[in-house]
Every structure is written in C-alpha cells, then in structure tokens.
Design brief:
heterodimer; A: alpha+beta; 3 helices; globular; B: mainly alpha; Hypothetical protein af1432; 0% strand
Chain lengths: 162, 285
C-alpha cells in the first residue's frame, strides 16, 4: 500500500504493509526517519526553509517549511514508540538550477536550515544525497526500512542507511 | 541522427480542432476582440461542456455554478475563459507519458498547466496586456518534448554526460547530441499551427530570456520565472531535472526578490488541491 507524501506534506506509519513514497524532490527536501526496533517510518517533504515567511500559512500547513516540519516529523515517530537514539535519518533533495547562487538558491537554503537544526539538536544523518540539478524520488518500506532512491532518468537504487 | 525524421514527427501530433484554431487566432491577433471567442465556442457542444466543467472547478472558487459561456465570461473574465478553452483544446497532445524525459502519464500536462496558471497570476498582478497569449505559450512551450521524447531515450547517456561533464544545460545538450532542442521544435509546432509570431518567439526562447532583456517586453521573463518555480518545486519533474541556466538578471528586471519567489511558491501551493483537481479534469479530453 503506497502512502504518498505530497509537496508540503508528511506521513508517518508503523503499518508493515505501507510503503511511504515521495515524488520529484527538486529544490525541496525530503527527510526520512526510521526506527528499526519498533519499525516505524516517516517522510517529510518540505518546500521552503523558514516559517517566518508567512506564519499564517505555516499555521495551516507546517509541513511546507523546514523549521516547522522537521520537529513534527520526529515528534510524530516518538508517538509511535520510536526513540531518538534508534532513529535512522536520511536527507534527499535540495537541488538547484545551474548557476543559481545566493538568496534565490532555495535548494541550498532548505538544506542549510536542516543542518542548523540537526546540529543544535544533535541529530546525525545516516545518508544524504543533496544538491545537483536532478529530481529525486524516495520509497521507504515500513516493514524493513529498505529505501529506494530514484534519480529521474536513472534506475532506482537501494540506499545503504539501516 | 537524422534531423528530418525528428522534424517530420511534428505531423504526427493530433491536429488542433477547427474551433481551437479559431480561438487561437483570436487570442493571437491584436485586431480581434476576445468577445469573439464566445461566438466561436458556443457552437461546439463538447468544448462548451468541458469549458463549463473547468470553470466550475474549485480552482476558480466561484460561489455560483455557471451554466453558460456568457455566465462564465461574466464571472471569470475573458482572459481566464480563453485560458480554459486553450487547456481543453491542447490537453490531448500533452498528457501521454514521455519515457525519454522519464515522465509518467499526465506529468507533462501537470507541468504545463501549473506553469500556465503561475504565468496567469503573475501577469495579472502586473496587469500585462496579453495574458491569454502568455497563458497559451506557457501551456504549449514544452510540446517539443513530445516529439523529442523517443530520441532522448536513445541518446540519454550521451546527453547526461554532456550535462555533467561540460556543464551544458539539458537544452544545449539536446542540440549538441540530437541537432535540435525541444524549444526550437515547440516553436516549429507553433508555426505550423499558425500561432502569432510573438508566441512562436516566446516558445523558441523560453529558456533563453537574455534575448529580450534589452526591450521592455516582460513576456519571456514572466514565462521563464514560472518555469523556474515549477522546476524548483519539482512539479512534473523529469530526467532533465533542473539542468537549465539561472539568470539573476531576469529576477532583477522583474524586480522580483527572493521573498517574492518564496511567497509565490507558497501561494501556489496553498491552492495545490484545486490545481490538482483542475489538472485531472482538463487532462485526456
């Protein structure tokens, strides 16, 4: 059963039948977490770095922004019994258009906010594939934690993160 | 690669219906009034039915259900109705999967409609005069991909190598390896379908906005900006990914700040569900 995570969306599940999927990460960031002990997984797909842009929109949909979405992803997996020490963490996306520098480089800014938050909260990542000019699609099997990364134009490959 | 074989494929596209081409003529011609659209489409029952369905979709958020073209024009305005007619007319050529670009069924259409809707909203904010023409150009700008798709598939490794090693854009790599790119092919389709020279020019140069930055025309900058947003958000994202050139000069010309960029992305996404519904309703008719 595919649980599709749209853009500005999050899904967490411990249903062994579920495969959490998120398509076409461009400059957006996909964060996946998995606790192999309680077998709960979650994926967040956020599009913009900071909710200060528009607190009203962040209130309605906190998954649009990195700074409001990331804490919710972790908290939601804790509700399912996951613990921070056991969580495997993966980060994908943050692509950029050629020669896109500075403030307009949202891919880079999306990644920067995540790194700041992870640094502050002592979270280490088990796998990252970030940047470049490609679209990425992720599939996460809740039963096993097996994850497949597909870069558009290429075949899927298994991610070594568990 | 035989260029003639690629170009001949333009003939294999589904021709635009008589009503569709008449509406396009009206949109393209500076001497026509958009009012004429109403007279043209009222005799086409299929198109009228599609048009009313789309005008009643959640995207437009009308409180009253419109039941005639006149009503649709009264509530939405001619610009939007013209755009909806073009969606209903052009969808059949843009909905199929494009394997070469790694696009599943409906993804190219999603990309086309999303960028056209963003163009419409940016152009309305700036009160530009030729909105249906811009909307249609945005909708059709990637039709060259439909023709080039199978050839891309065969030459994909070479193309991607040029992108990675030589830092070419995907468009430049298409031209280098296949002798032609999807923007040029799109312009050829627009010529064959007798679009206005302005629209042909926009389609040909939609990845090359520097060509027109000398003049005052904001058409290509606006289309380029909408395309940039769709690429970044990954709407209908394919094998060409984000491998196109970014021009800060375009943002400066439009006085578009990075906060504007983020707000436009956030605004568009707030309407995501309604957009998705309209994409589904308009595709495959």
């Amino acid at each position: 059963m595919d649980l599709v995570v749209g853009v500005g969306d999050m899904k967490v599940s411990n249903n062994p039948e579920a495969v959490i999927v998120t398509y076409a990460l461009g400059s957006c960031i996909g964060v996946a977490v998995y606790d192999p002990f309680v077998k709960v997984g979650g994926v967040l797909h956020y599009m913009l770095p900071e909710s200060s842009l528009d607190p009203g929109k962040a209130g309605k949909n906190p998954f649009m922004f990195g700074d409001t979405g990331i804490p919710l992803l972790f908290k939601e997996t804790y509700r399912y019994g996951a613990t921070k020490n056991h969580l495997k963490v993966m980060v994908l996306g943050g692509a950029q258009i050629l020669d896109q520098g500075g403030l307009f480089n949202i891919g880079n800014r999306n990644h920067t906010i995540l790194r700041k938050m992870f640094w502050k909260n002592n979270v280490t990542t088990n796998f990252e594939d970030v940047g470049g000019v490609v679209n990425r699609t992720l599939k996460l099997e809740v039963k096993t934690g097996e994850a497949l990364l597909k870069i558009s134009g290429n075949e899927s490959r298994k991610i070594p993160w568990i | 690669m035989d260029l003639d074989i690629i170009i001949q494929k333009i003939d294999s596209l589904s021709p635009v219906s008589a009503t569709g081409s008449r509406v396009m003529e009206i949109i393209s011609s500076p001497n026509s009034s958009l009012e004429e659209i109403v007279d043209v489409i009222k005799y086409d029952q299929g198109l009228t039915a599609n048009l009313l369905r789309l005008c009643n979709s959640a995207y437009f958020g009308l409180r009253t259900k419109v039941e005639s073209i006149r009503q649709a024009v009264a509530y939405l305005g001619l610009n939007k109705v013209a755009g909806v007619v073009m969606m209903a007319t052009l969808s059949k050529n843009l909905t199929a999967a494009q394997k070469g670009y790694d696009l599943n069924e409906g993804e190219l259409w999603k990309y086309s409609v999303s960028s056209a809707l963003i163009v419409q909203s940016l152009a309305e904010k700036r009160q530009l005069g030729n909105i249906p023409c811009l909307f249609t150009s945005a909708l059709l700008k990637d039709i060259g991909k439909v023709i080039l798709g199978t050839h891309i598939q065969d030459a994909f490794q070479k193309i991607i190598l040029s992108v990675e090693k030589e830092r070419l854009t995907f468009l430049e790599a298409e031209r280098k390896i296949l002798g032609i790119d999807h923007a040029e092919l799109g312009a050829m389709v627009a010529e064959k379908w007798r679009f206005s020279p302005e629209m042909v020019f926009i389609i040909r140069n939609h990845h090359d906005p520097m060509k027109i930055l000398i003049g005052d025309d904001l058409s290509i900058p606006i289309i380029y900006l909408a395309d940039t947003i769709c690429m970044m958000v990954g709407i209908g994202g394919g094998a060409d990914g984000l491998a196109y050139r970014y021009y800060q000069e375009v943002m400066d010309r439009l006085s578009f700040t990075e906060i504007d960029l983020q707000n436009t992305i956030a605004d568009f996404w707030e309407k995501n569900k309604a957009v998705e519904e309209m994409i589904k309703m308009s595709g495959g008719n």
